[in-house]
Write a structure and sequence with these properties.
There is one protein chain. The chain is mostly helical and 597 residues long. It has a single domain, classed as Sodium/glucose cotransporter (Up-down Bundle), CATH 1.20.1730. Helices cover 67% and strands 2% of the residues. It is built from 21 helices and six strands. It has a two-stranded antiparallel sheet with strand order 1-6. A two-stranded antiparallel ribbon has the order 2-5. Helix 10 packs across helix 13 and helix 16 packs across helix 17. The C terminus is likely disordered.
Length: 597
């Protein structure tokens, strides 16, 4: 069967599974809708958490970033895995014992203030919509390429799928769907990795194959370093980022992880605090399977790409190259007229508007993802543009693996994007229906009315998320990294101080969150979009202390922390009952009986 037929078959089977689970796990109460009734087993919750956590950024973009950034890409591995450990050990058990199943609910009750709750709702919406933008782009990339549909139609199909299992089942439907999605995505990621590792190094274990030797006896990483330097790129195994920027990006990703509302809520779907700890351990082991394999996939993909395209005749390019050209995610222009692809260090395509691709005759070439432009074609000999988001998806085709493997990767990419998108959309829905309507605007709303409000909120959120997919703001992992920076800048200090500092009051928490989120938004807009001041983003040389937008969440978080502590010490302490709650949530005795309410 052809790649497209295999893709349709595997996607149809997996989607049928998701729909079946959604119908079986319909939510009948708000507790089912918000926290799956609080009765999920630790193993199932660990699998669901892993799927929720490993988004399109993990499945599609992380290996792509490492493929191009090499050593510098390790910040994503360190930040995301370290952040999950931080969340599991430092925050999750205490939040579970506190008993509030949303971050705004925790902040509203801990800081005895609807103002704090409202600020937290706004922050949750900003973080979640920034994050979901990356997921919908991932859905669009997979559908556009493998199902051969228009990008708009691809996003609409993805929206419809998420709507079914999120609208019907809420957290209950999403949880059990995510268990299935974890199995699909991890199988889809590992199978081609094992195939390619065996093919290139003779070792079926990708983590070992990355450090192994190829057929001529050269170590694979040494070979890739040589290929890089011959083409003018920096050595793959060396870094170019400053130590300060690496530290700040890693810390922003770690703290952002610990403040992500859609991950935190997963610890309320199990019966007891003890089960929350167990599910965190299971999730970490399950996540590690993909995260330890991603660097190997990056090395395999980068090596195969360079050997396949560099210096080769364009006319002899395999079908995968021309198929991906149709999406606009890879592009070539013959600057020197020799008919060969010159892939060397230097800019080939710019991201600024107006976006188009110039072919050899100067005619614009439009792909499904809009248009791109050649950047200084006379100044740079590089003729090839490769979007890093395609590396994992195109890797099996580049390595000439069987068609069913290529279709499997497409199904895995969709599973990763849709699982996280569903979790994020539920956070958006819960923030509006529970934290805004139930807790503030209409406290006497019936359970049936609250459930209806939650479903309407999901519908609206999916429409907005779809617009992000149709008009994507950037490659997946960059957008997701900014979401982590926003979570670190807003939520992390408020949650940590809320648990460990009984003197922290509402004035300090509100002031800190507002200052942190505004500062991060300003920096992100100025240095990523250029919407303030100039049309183009400001250059890296103008960045404060040389810190990139992905790492600036750490700066905003520190400012949030300082503002929170100073303001809290200059204003009255919290009521005695609130201070007593803070003392109690850190006491293990009887913790197993804590129930969400």
């Amino acid at each position: 069967m052809s790649v497209q037929v295999w893709t349709w078959v595997l996607v149809a089977i997996t989607f049928g599974l998701y729909f079946g689970i959604a119908i079986w796990a319909r939510a009948g109460s708000t507790k089912d809708f918000y926290v799956a009734g609080g009765g999920v087993s630790p193993l199932a919750n660990g699998m669901a958490t892993a799927a929720d956590w490993m988004s399109a950024a993990s499945f599609i973009s992380m290996a792509g970033i490492i493929s191009f950034a090499g050593y510098d890409g390790s910040v994503y591995l360190m930040g995301w895995t370290g952040g999950y450990v931080l969340l599991a050990l430092l925050l999750a058990p205490y939040l579970r014992k506190f008993g509030k199943f949303t971050v705004p609910d925790f902040i509203g009750d801990r800081y005895y203030s609807n103002t704090a709750r409202t600020v937290a709702v706004i922050c949750a919406l900003i973080v979640s919509f920034t994050y979901v933008a990356g997921q919908m782009r991932g859905v669009g990339i997979v559908f556009s390429q493998f199902l051969q549909v228009d990008i708009v139609m691809g996003v609409i199909i993805g929206m419809a799928v998420v709507l079914v299992f999120a609208f019907l089942g809420g957290m209950k439907g999403i949880t059990y769907t995510q268990v299935a999605q974890y199995c699909v995505l991890i199988f889809a990621f590992m199978v081609p990795a094992i195939f390619i590792s065996s093919q290139m190094t003779g070792n079926a274990i990708p983590q070992l194959g990355m450090g192994g030797a190829v057929s001529d006896g050269t170590y694979l990483l040494d070979k890739l370093d040589t290929l890089h330097t011959e083409l003018g790129f920096k050595e793959y195994t060396s870094g170019s980022k400053s130590t300060l920027d690496v530290f700040f990006i890693t810390l922003a990703l770690m703290a952002g992880t610990a403040g992500l509302p859609h991950v935190i809520v997963r610890f309320f779907t199990v019966p007891k605090v003890k089960d929350a700890r167990k599910s965190a351990g299971y999730a970490l082991l399950l996540i590690a399977i993909l995260y330890t394999t991603a660097p190997a996939v990056a090395v395999f993909a980068r090596t195969n790409l360079i050997e396949t395209v560099s210096g080769k005749d364009y006319a002899s390019m395999p079908d995968w190259f021309k198929n991906w050209e149709d999406t606009g995610l890879i592009a070539w222009t013959d600057k020197n007229g020799d008919g060969k692809i010159q892939y060397v260090a230097g800019p080939a395509l710019a991201s600024k508007k107006p976006k188009f691709i110039d072919d050899a005759e100067g005619e614009p070439v439009r792909g499904k993802f809009g248009e791109r432009s050649i950047s200084n074609p006379s100044d740079s000999p590089n003729e090839l543009y490769v979007d890093r988001d395609i590396m994992v998806l195109a890797n099996p085709e580049i390595a000439k693996l069987p068609n069913w493997v290529i279709g499997l990767v497409a199904a895995g990419g969709l599973a990763a994007a849709l699982s996280t998108a569903a979790g994020l959309l539920l956070v958006i829905s819960t923030s509006i229906s529970h934290d805004l309507i139930k807790k503030q605007l209409k406290p006497d709303i019936s359970e049936k009315g609250e459930l209806m409000a939650a479903r309407i909120a999901i519908l609206v959120a999916i429409i907005i998320a779809g617009l992000f997919g149709i008009y994507p703001p950037g490659f997946v992992a960059a957008v997701v990294a900014l979401a982590f920076g926003l979570a670190a800048a807003s939520f992390f200090p408020a949650i940590v101080l809320g648990i460990f500092d009984k003197r922290m009051n509402r004035q300090g928490a509100v002031a800190g969150m507002v200052v942190g989120i505004v500062l991060m938004l300003y920096y992100m807009i100025v240095y990523k979009t250029g919407l303030i001041g100039t049309f183009d983003p400001k250059p890296a040389s103008d960045q404060w202390f040389g810190i990139s937008p992905e790492g600036f969440g750490t700066v905003a978080m520190i400012v949030n922390l300082v503002v929170s502590l100073v303001v809290s010490r200059l204003t009255p302490p919290p009521p005695a009952d609130v201070q007593e709650i803070v003392e109690n949530i850190r006491i293990p005795s009887g913790a197993g009986e804590a129930q969400a309410h």
